[in-house]
Amino acid sequence: MVYPIADQEAELGRLQELMPASGRMLCRLMHCPEQSVVIATSLPLPWQRGKRPVSLNLDLWNQLPESQRDLLLLRTVSWVIGMQWFTFDLYRGLMAAGLLGAAVEFAQGDAIGIMVSVGLAAMGTSQIWRSHRSTQRELDADELAIQVAQRRGYGETDAARHLLAAIESVARIEGRPALDLSELLRCQNLKAIAGLSPVGISNNRRRME
Hints:
Layout: H1 5-18, H2 21-26, E1 27-31, E2 39-40, E3 52-56, H3 58-61, H4 66-81, H5 90-108, H6 111-132, H7 135-150, H8 156-173, H9 181-193, H10 203-206
Helix pairs in contact: 4-7, 4-8, 5-6, 7-8, 7-9, 8-9
């Protein structure tokens, strides 16, 4: 099925209004009919300027019920919003110290000092990158999406169920034989929120990368 242009514009406009204000400021929605996945975005890097693209294949997207589309969009935007490179912690401190040290050592012409400083910066950057792909970050994005959905008229239980169904529907539409580990953990957490399972995700498991 090819999604008509007028309907594409209407759906993208509806989704734009659905997003929280921070999402409208940070994200740019676009129709990408050539992509094989329903919705996609990439990890925003600290030096990238402008809005962060969120691409949808609306021909696939339209196969989902509206409630699932809403929660899937809110979840993707919540994941983007959660990417904070410049809040201070140990690894960001390492990255900043490494970059500053590299600049100083470069000015002094110390090759060994430059290598050490660049190594520190790379270590900090790598750990930040891994934390943005962690189980905790994935679950946080789901839970933030549910909170935003509640401000859009959904109940917490219904929102969790719609997002759970969306994860499973997307895998089917994309022709994937099974969910990956991250999706399975997310589904278990959503089942607990939706009251479909008494078993949630432990704090130890949340912190695993």
